[in-house]
């Protein structure tokens, strides 16, 4: 595989979508931007079901649905792109299942890990873990419109999600990004992390 695989993780409203667009404009070389849950027709249908505020899903059901969508996304989109030499910028991936269903929802770690082993034949070269105060992130997300099913979960759920992301950020393939401040300030932190960890990506032509 010759493309690089970067994932963007973190709590609600951390600014991932904004920064993926900015990074995609900056990087040379073949690039694909995509998101989870989603990225395929089936995955987008699963996304609508999961985010619907009128639906009720247990943490186990959420993890199974997220991974059903992820399996299609990995097989149909991510692996073919990486094999073709295209780098992939992905808004959330398996670490979100760890943080939300595991950290927030209390799902058994063995289940989270087993799903990851079955569904994820590829791990990211770099995980950018955005960190933002939970209230600030939820306020940013709320300013955009009505809360989806995850945004509507309580503050203590989102504090647990954030705590799990902080743990994930300590992994060797991860880096913590302070997501507070202006979009320009956050972009500079990201460019510095990418240049430090994956200099070939910035140099690619
Ligand atoms: N989920 C997902 C799981 O539970 N398990 C899983 O396995 C997976 C894959 C997806 C939901 O699914 C859950 C997690 C999520 O709850 P989503 O809508 O994709 O739903 O949720 P988010 O990824 O959190 O998307 P958001 O759009 O809410 O947050 P982003 O992408 O981090 O933030 P962004 O860029 O859209 O910015 C939010 C708002 O803030 C502004 C933007 O203009 C925008 O209005 N903003 C800033 N404002 C001030 N300063 C800055 N620096 C700003 N940057 C952006």
Give descriptors for this structure:
205 residues, alpha/beta, Rossmann fold, 5-stranded parallel sheet, 5 strands, 13% strand, globular, binds P1-(5'-adenosyl)P5-(5'-thymidyl)pentaphosphate
Structure characterization notes:
The chain has 205 residues and is α/β, with parallel strands linked by helices. The protein has one domain: Rossmann fold (3-Layer(aba) Sandwich), CATH 3.40.50. The protein has helices at 16-26, 41-51, 59-83, 94-104, 109-119, 134-142, 155-168, 183-197, 199-203, and strands at 5-9, 31-35, 87-91, 126-131, 174-178. A five-stranded parallel β-sheet has the order 2-3-1-4-5, with helices on both faces. The radius of gyration is 16 Å and the shape is globular.
Share of residues in strands: 5-15%
Number of spatially distinct domains: 1
Give a list of the ligands.
Answer: P1-(5'-adenosyl)P5-(5'-thymidyl)pentaphosphate
- Total number of beta strands: 5
Could you list the spans in which at least 5 consecutive residues all have pLDDT below 50? none
CATH homologous superfamily annotation: P-loop containing nucleotide triphosphate hydrolases
Count of DSSP-assigned helices: 9
Biggest sheet record: 5 strands, parallel
Given the helix and strand composition, which structural class is it? Answer: alpha/beta
Order of helices and strands: EHEHHEHHEHHEHH
Distance between the termini: 17 Å
List the strand order in the largest sheet: 2-3-1-4-5
Q: Which CATH architecture?
A: 3-Layer(aba) Sandwich
Q: If you compute it from the alpha carbons, what radius of gyration comes out, rounded to the nearest whole angstrom? A: 16 Å
CATH topology category name:
Rossmann fold
